[in-house]
Structure formats: C-alpha cells, structure tokens
Write a structure and sequence with these properties.
Pfam families: DP. The protein is 52% helix and 13% strand. It is built from five helices and six strands, in the order ββαββββαααα. The strands form three sheets. A two-stranded antiparallel ribbon has the order 1-2. A two-stranded antiparallel sheet has the order 3-6. The protein has a two-stranded antiparallel sheet with strand order 4-5. Strand 4 and strand 5 form a beta hairpin.
C-alpha cells in the first residue's frame, strides 16, 4: 500500500499497478496525447466532409428552386434522386450486368478499367461547392456559404474557403507562438517595471545631494 501498488477501502482491495518512474509516465502521457490528437484530427476531417456534403445539398436545392422559378422542370424519367453513383468506363468496354430479383443488388463485370463516383463527387464537379473543397473561394462565396451552415460552423467554412490549414499541429504551433509572445510581453513589462523602480530609487537618492 505504501508503494501505491494496491489501495484498500474498508474491505475492498483494488489493484493500482506496479510503480513506474517519471520517464515511463512521461512516455505514456506523450503516447496518450498523440493518440488524442490523431482522434481530433480524424474527427476534424470527418466534420469537413460533412460540411461539404451539407453545402452541396443546400446548393443543389437552391439551384433546383431557381430552375423551377424560371419554369424549367425536369421530366420524371430524367430526374436523378439522391443518393446515387456514376460508373465511368471506356465506350469500347464490354459490360456484363446482373440484377437481383428484388432489384436491390446490381453486379457489373468490366473487361476494361472503370471509375466509380458518388453523388458528392458529381456535385463537386458541377461547381456546387463554390471552390470550398479546393480552398479557392472568394469573399462573396464565403459569405454565401456561411449563410448555409449553423453559426458554430462558420469558422470552419472561413478556414476551408481561404485554404487555411486547421490541422492539429498547426493549431498547436500557433498556440505555442502565442505563448512565446505572451511570455516576451510579460518579460518586457517586468524589465520596464525594474527600470522604473531603479529610476525612482536614483531620483530619491539624488534628492538628498546638495548642489
């Protein structure tokens, strides 16, 4: 118990683990910190993808509304419903397509290379993200996109629209620079105060000298 290997509360004895030195604890904390940072970075990337999806759908809705206001309505056979995928291959490729009885599964066999694009990729190609995915938005586009998202996500939109990297490493570097600037400011203020104290002491001593 004195070595913090076990703890005892009334009749309950708990195993705390073998004692470790400070170096081992520091290494373990560094690993845990890096793991948390990686998780945050992954969540940030997922959030950015969700923002892009949200913007693309909002833009598509506005585009369709504008078309309807102009009297342009697609026929039921030409309308494509979300979600969808587009399969692209050579016009010389041979395609064997098999469909399940309930038409919920499709199997394709190609004798040449092919590409698969999801709905978000197609909406990006249609320019419905205003360059947000490339970090090439104008200020006008950024303001327009910000109006499509909640207030809490506007800062992410600004960073994405201006192509500003918001990776964890960059954020930590900015915080470190801020801390350094703050320390330098505090040191500068301390030196100024010391100089003022010395000047006051000098003035008090000189006042006693007869001229």
């Amino acid at each position: 118990m004195a070595m913090n290997i076990i703890s005892k509360e009334k009749k309950e004895i708990r195993w705390l683990g073998l004692p470790t030195n400070s170096m081992q604890e520091c290494t373990a904390l560094e690993k845990e910190k890096q793991s948390k940072l990686d998780q945050i970075q992954t969540k940030t990337q997922q959030l950015q993808e969700l923002i892009l999806q949200h913007i693309s759908f909002k833009s598509l809705i506005e585009r369709n509304k504008d078309a309807e206001n102009k009297g342009i309505k697609p026929s039921p056979s030409s309308a494509i419903h979300l979600p969808f995928i587009v399969v692209n291959t050579s016009d010389k490729a041979l395609i064997d397509c098999s469909i399940s009885n309930d038409k919920t599964e499709y199997m394709f066999n190609f004798n040449k290379r092919f590409q698969i694009h999801d709905d978000i990729d197609i909406l990006k190609r249609m320019g419905l993200l205003f360059g947000l995915d490339k970090g090439e938005c104008t200020e006008e586009d950024i303001d327009k996109v910000k109006s499509m998202v909640p207030k809490s996500l506007e800062s992410y939109v600004e960073q994405m629209g201006r192509g500003v990297s918001n990776s964890i490493s960059n954020i930590l570097e900015e915080e470190d620079l801020d801390d350094v600037d703050e320390e330098e400011t505090l040191e500068g203020e301390a030196e100024t105060e010391d100089q003022e104290v010395e000047a006051n002491e000098y003035s008090e001593d000189s006042s006693d000298v007869d001229v």
